[in-house]
Structures are given as structure tokens and as C-alpha cells.
Amino acid sequence: MKIARAEAILVSIPFQPIGIPPWSWGDKAENCFDTLLVRIETDTGIVGWGEAFSRNKDRALAETIRTKILPLIVGRDATAIARIKHDLEFNLHNFGRVSGVMNGISAVDIALWDILGKSTGRPLVDLIGGAFADQLPVYASLLRYADEKNLGDAIEQSIARGYRYIKLHEVDLDLIRFAVRLGEGRARFMLDTNCPWSVSETIRNARALADIDLMWLEEPVWPPENYDGLAQARAAGPFPIAAGENQGSLFDIAAMISKGAIDIAQPDVAKTGGVTELLRIRALCEATGVDFVPHCALFGPGQVATFHLNASTQSKPVVERLYCDFEEDLYGHRADPVDGFIRVPMGPGLGLDPDLAIVDKYRVN
Ligand SMILES: [Mg+2]
């Protein structure tokens, strides 16, 4: 079964914000999220779908995938997943081991696992060891509101929808305390600050928040590769430290763990090397006593692959879902949480294919 065709398709779908999220990723803030799809078709007619992490209608990344990555896989045996991934990484390592190229390689890996599942008639979760759970709790990963009214509305709405875990993306300590107090007893909270602070600021701010209950503190220290600094913050406490979404491979996560920087590893299947790499990272986590809780700010095949990965993990990690309602949904809402849980799709491969009419409607490149 050979790879006959491969293409990158960039889709961006508007969502209904609560308030105006000030997240802009360095660009003009827009209330829409990308799904950068990789579609691989075999000579037997099987089509697999993968996803590369993307924001802000990243046409440049789509073009990088088209021109640098996909030409290298056409004609290859579609079942040689680890070998294709290795060859792509080896041949392209000069172009960066974190970000763009790795996001694209991750997408290829996910699509090849989808093809393997479809060709064998098995869901991905079965191919990677079988399920510990057929449904998983989801956490509402709130956008950053920086405003008590909008943040409060988002918390009340997510609890009313059945979420029992909520992650904040705030950095203002009063606002964080307000949010946890508002929801405590009804939901458990995590805090993701997205790398804003120095080590000393992190230690000071974490101590100032010691009176609230947080399941974890995520990426408090700038820059994300400052593992010594993160280890210092972790040692100072009081919260478990989570990070990993800005690491590119097993070896980055291994370095974090050996520095004592994290309690919880958060590799992203659409950034950190796909299903193949996350399985390696999961084994490392198991052997080193670090929790494996994948990052997932994805809405396409990467999100669905994360369902399968989490379901096949003995600790049944909670699934991340960015909290926003899309104008239209790539999967006809079949991947949406219901009452705070998702069901793992048990069809062959990922078990869900994107709706091509929605892909066409929101395609930007
Ligand atoms: Mg994060």
C-alpha cells in the first residue's frame, strides 16, 4: 500500500467568543482557530487525515508542509510509519526541531496511523494497546479573558455544561483567585500562564496563590526551554508543574524530566512528533513517575488522535478542549464533549473523518 498523493489543507473556522479574547499570537486578534489538515491518499484508495498545530491562518506553514515534507513521502509504503517519521526528521532536522517542520511531520504521522487503522479495520486505540476507558473526562480550557465578568460567565457556562475540570489562562493573581473561588466545590482548576514570568516572579506568584487549590501550574517560566529555571520554581512549590507543549520530541521531554522540571508532561500530538512520538514519551513518563497528560488545543484529527492516546493510557488522562463554540464543526459535533466527557470514536483509524463540505467552506489555503 503506497502513498499516492498527499496535500495540506488550511481551514480556519470562526467561533463565538465570550468577551473578546486578547490572544493574538503576535498578530491581529481574530476569533477563529485554524485546523491545518494533512490528507494522505494511498494507491488502494484509503484516505488518512492528520493535523499540524497552526494559528492565525498560517499559510506559510501550509506551504512548508506542501513543499518540504509531503514530496518526501509520495511513493513510500504507507505502513512504514516509524521509518517515514524518522526519515522526515533526519532529512529536515536543519530546519528546526521544534515548531513548523515538526508540526508538519506530526501531521503526517497521525494520518499514517489513521490509514493503518482503516486498512486493518481497527480503531487507533486498539492499534496502540487497547482502551482503558471508552470515555474520558474533558477539561474546559478557557481562553484568556482578563476580565471578571467574562471569565465568570465562562466558568458558570462551562460548569452548567457539565465540565468538572476547568483550566484558566489568566495571569492576574486577583482574577485567578476570583475564578477558583467562584467555581470551587463544583469544579477543579488548573492554571496555564503561557510562559510569562521570570523564575523569581514565578516563585513569588505561586506562593501568593498558595491559598487556592490548583491541580497544576502550567508553563509559568520564560522561556519554555528554561528547564533549570522551571526546576527551581517546581522545587519552591506549592503546585505541581506541567509543561511540554513547546517541546519538539522525546529528547526535549527527557531533558525536562532529568532536570526535575515537571510533574506532568504535556506533549502535543500535532507538534511533538505525532502518535509515534507520544507513545515513546508516554513510556518515558511511566518509567520516571511523571504524569502523561497530552496538550490538545486542536479541533481536527489531532484532537481525535488525542482521544485515542488518552484512552489507551492506564491513568486515563483528562482531555483538553479549548472552550469555544464554533460557527460550524469539522466533525458535525461528533467530537464535542457531552456533559464533560468525550466518547472515543471506535470506527477504523481515528474513527472520524472531517466533513468535506465544511473543509471547502472554511478553506483559506
Ligand atoms: Mg498550555
Name some characteristics of this structure.
365 residues, Enolase-like, domain 1, TIM Barrel, nine-stranded mixed beta sheet, binds magnesium ion
| Highest CATH level, the class of the largest domain | Alpha Beta
Bound molecules: magnesium ion
Count the beta strands. 13
Tell me the domain tally.
Answer: 2
Q: How far is it from the N-terminal to the C-terminal residue, by CA? A: 28 Å
Share in β-strands? 15-25%
CATH-defined fold name of the largest domain: TIM Barrel
Largest sheet: 9 strands, mixed
Taking all Cα atoms into account, the compactness measure Rg is: 20 Å
- Quick check: average pLDDT? 96
Q: Label the overall shape.
A: globular
CATH homologous superfamily annotation of the largest domain: Enolase-like C-terminal domain
Please identify the oligomeric state: single chain
- Give helix % range: 25-40%
Organism: Cupriavidus pampae
Keywords: Isomerase, Lyase
EC number: 5.5.1.27
Pfam families: MR_MLE_C (PF13378), MR_MLE_N (PF02746)
